[in-house]
Amino acid sequence: MQVSVPFAPDQASTYSGEVDALYGFLWALTIGVGAVLTILIIYFAVKYRRRTEDEIPKAVEGSLKLEVVWTVIPFFIAMGIFTWGASIYYKRYSPPSEALDVYVVAKQWMWKFQHLDGQREINELHIPVGRKIKLTMTTEDVIHSLFVPAFRLKMDVVPGKYSSIWFQPTEAGRYHLFCAEYCGTSHSGMIGWIDVMEPSEYQSWLSGGSGEALAASGEKLFQQLGCVTCHRSDGQGRGPILEGLFGKEAALQGGQKVTADEAYVRESILNPKAKVVEGYQPIMPTFQGLVTEEQLLQLVAYVKSIGKTQTGTNPAGASPSPPNKMGAAAVPTGPPQTGRSGGAEAKKPR
Amino acid sequence: MESEVQNKAPRTHYINARYGLKSWLFTIDHKRIALLYLASITFFFFLGGLFAVLIRLELLTPKGDLVQAETYNRFFTMHGVVMVFFFLIPAIPATLGNFLIPLMIGARDLAFPRLNLLSWYIYVVGAVFTLIAIVGGGVDTGWTFYTPYSTTYSNGNVLLTGIGIFITGFSSILTGLNFIVTIHTMRAPGLSWFRLPLFVWSHYATSLIMVLGTPVIAITILLLAFERIAHVGIFDPKLGGDPVLFQHLFWFYSHPAVYIMVLPAMGVISELVANMTRKNIFGYKFVALASIAIAIFGFLVWGHHMFVSTQSVYAGMIFSILSYAVAIPSAVKTFNWTATLYKGSISYNTPMLYAFGFIGFFIIGGMTGLFLAALGLDIHVHDTYFVVAHFHYIMVGGTIMGYLGGLHYWWPKISGRMYPEGWARFAALVIFVGFNLTFFPQFLLGYQGMPRRYYAYPDEFQVLNVMSSAGASILGVGYLIPMVYLFWSMRYGPKAGSNPWGAFGLEWRTSSPPPTENFKVTPVVTWEAYEFSPVEETEVIDISTP
User: I need a labelling partner for B17 at 20 to 30 A (CA). Which of B28, B118, B247, B518 fits?
Assistant: First the structure.
């Protein structure tokens, strides 16, 4: 939908037009309702102005019919707006499986981006136009919020958990990135740029970069930290096989199930006893304090990268999860899951 | 309109009944306590206003040049804390409510007069803590105190400010309790629930929120203090807590708190509209029950502050739909006020101008609430100036228009004097223009993408910021004018009669200012609310004045 409203930022993602359309509609409604009431009030105020000081007008009884009318009509209008708003919202939390992953770590007062191919950026993010992009975000200190007005995109970045959001840029260009959640002294300095590039330019930007792929860094960490001794790919280790795991459902002790998404991998590294896979002992030590948020994301990227590997056996009781309403089966992460697996509840062993 | 009791000897009333500072500080007369509150909240209004002036000055230019970022962050925090907890929440209930509820229901005082005085002292103690926190360097968390910034990272006086708010909360709880008991037990004979003035209804609804909601903010502040002092992991994930939990607890009180501010203003507007048109409020019962509906629904919508907080998508949908539900009773009130004008006898006195202003602000503030409750749209405007504009339209536009309208309307009752009508109309106009110029550009600024709580901003936002600052200077003058002429009128204003407006309601059936015991004879109510009658003269229930 192409609606352009005054005082709106550039329209540079698939959301921009949708949000502007609802915004434009609501202003039209506001002006309509405001005009009707204002005209009525002015008309009454002039017509029924007090003519003599001791004038007492005749009483007017209320009208049940009118009360019903002006309760029911606004109710239906309100429900219409609710549905419109909710449908835009719902889409944002249903990331498509083919989205390009970018990992974000915020801290006072900068934005750090890690690309799958290994490029790292600060306060600047390069992405190709037309691709669906999924951001997986966390912070090292306080709550921040990633806000790109041109994309009509905003999501809080909360310590102790991953939040994620996806979008699809439609126009190449350079757009402001703001922190929208107050985060201390230089909150207003925590701004940066999103560079949306033509795919060819993006390719040459990518090849200009140095450093190894994120998953490769993750694999190195996986060796260094000794993860590999238990999580062996041949099934002989004391921990579950991680190959082919990502995005599948794993059965836990006690009969519960969990989808092996970014949040679950993160939780299993920091708080391994929280959700132990069926048939394994809770013997893994915590890596809390031993890995940084950026390294954690590298490990997640690694586990994700080997998730596509198909091992012959059924790893860790994992079965392919059925496609659900949230869209892609591969990455069914969203606030309900991230909320549940991070934070305070993760403390309690189950 | 001169008083009919002109020729008699100086009458004893609540102001001249006793003299001296002690007679004020130890008074248990609800009318005097109301004036104690009036003085205290006026002080905080101008203190909070001073911070607003500094904020708008800094935002005149894109670069941060007037003060340091750290200082600016303290300005907007102190502006919010002072205005919300020490002005807006007590503004109408503790002053006009305190003064008028016993008068309106034909009672001698509130149910617990000593508790009423205690409430004021508690307020003052809380205020002193907060003032010490301000003088000692202030606090920089924003009035929302989001964790883990407030518990682990901020180096401002978080605890001292928190203690101030914690203590002041009890003043609010006790006032609410006092009102509820008073309205239940002390109505004059014949004054049934549906004969009550709508002002009393709205204060009843407000009191419910004060009593049920305020303890939650007290608990939240305690938890915050535990974590900040003892590092008990409640909110900070590094200690094993959940930062989003704080937001749930905080908004569970702080959203209903908005209704603590605006419901009493709605009550004032109902009185103004009825009495300045001399008509029963159209759909009286609907307006009365809408207050209760708002109080109840108001407790179920806190999550609409958290649509991008990582709260569950489905929780977001429930909170969105409930937020639309709370919009309906607010709309019903607006339609009924408008319908009341039909075939009325509409006066253009200052109180009515404020009522018109309130309705105007409330339409804009209320309708923009629909923008913010729309999930997909809120993602874009959340935490931008759009939100700032919206809640100022409701909390400041709504509450202060109600407060000032009410103060003018009942001024003759409170002080026994009339204010200068010409100046008062002029000030109302200045405030209306100044307010719109200050806050309307902020809607556009927010949609353009300017986040709130920004000390410096990109150049493209400057034009609208300059407009806003210009409006704020007009608004500031508008607020100063009534301050001057109301003081002036206490001495030089023409004497007001017991009922200078030809208004309805028990408070107008006693003399101005009322005697300490309010009514010499307990009134017996044989009429419906706002039953203006062309025949009967309003009798003054104060015949036996010495």
Answer: B118
